[in-house]
Amino acid sequence: MSSTSFNADEHKNMLRTYFNGQGFHRWASIYGNDKLSSVRNTVRQGHAVMMDKAFDWLQQLGLPEGATILDAGCGTGLFSIRLAKAGYQVKSVDIASQMVDKAKADAIKQGVKKNIEFEVNTIESVSGTYDAVVCFDVLIHYPAEGFAQAFGNLSRLTKGSVIFTYAPYNRILALQHWIGGYFPKKERRTTIQMITDEQMRRAMSGAGMQVDKREKISWGFYHTMLMSASHN
Ligand SMILES: C[S@@+](CC[C@H](N)C(=O)[O-])C[C@H]1O[C@@H](n2cnc3c(N)ncnc32)[C@H](O)[C@@H]1O
To answer: d(Cα 103, Cα 127) in Å, to the nearest integer?
Structure first.
């Protein structure tokens, strides 16, 4: 696919700015305990369902205690902290320093800071090799070309599995986006980028990976595809 319209650096700068400001407050309240509108509450619940399923899948990989997991785009650290509590050695990376600061503060509060290495960095620039990589609700912010690039980077960071979410193309949701947004207007802040099956297949084969598991999670206004992939 050509790179005529997608500018990776510009797109990342836009996301960095958003997730360091308005986006931080919006998502930190969804991932926290604040009282939410009924729409956002379904996003919180759907996200929790997704994380439970992803955690089961990760445990089914049978990695030994102390195995290294990269949480790419860790946000406020919900999954990283859960991994650390389960005995994994975690590297938590996010493009937004505000997210990393919050994740670090929560890890300290919950007594697992020593099992997590935090870094303000991007999927594209993080280094190392990990026993598995997780990346939740990050790739949903990237259009097809950026999605393929980011997924390729994630796959290079492990010889094991990448467990991640993306927004599969859906005609009805596409129409809702077109009409005016995925969320009702006052709830809307970011555009969700949907990926077609063909775009997904191309990203997978470009990364030399295959799909091991997939499950669609739909809960109110939260719609995502959870996938586990490994190298061919
Ligand atoms: C919707 S939040 C999800 C956070 C977390 N994964 C979760 O599910 O709780 C998306 C996160 O991805 C981060 N992000 C977006 N693009 C990124 C990139 N290229 N590298 C690292 N983090 C990125 C944002 O800063 C934000 O914290």
So the answer is: 20
What CATH class does 8-231 carry? alpha beta
pLDDT tens for each residue of 61-70? 999 999 999 9
| Residues counted in the chain | 232
Closest residue by Cα to residue 141 from 26, 1, 60, 59: 26
pLDDT 10s digits, 194-228: 999 999 999 999 999 999 999 999 999 899 999 99
Mutate which of 49, 79, 81, 95 for ligand 1 pocket (most atoms within 8 A of beta carbon): 95
Which residues of the chain are under the pLDDT cut of 70? 1-4, 171-190
Q: Tell me how far the alpha carbon of residue 74 lies from the centroid of ligand 1, in angstroms.
A: 6
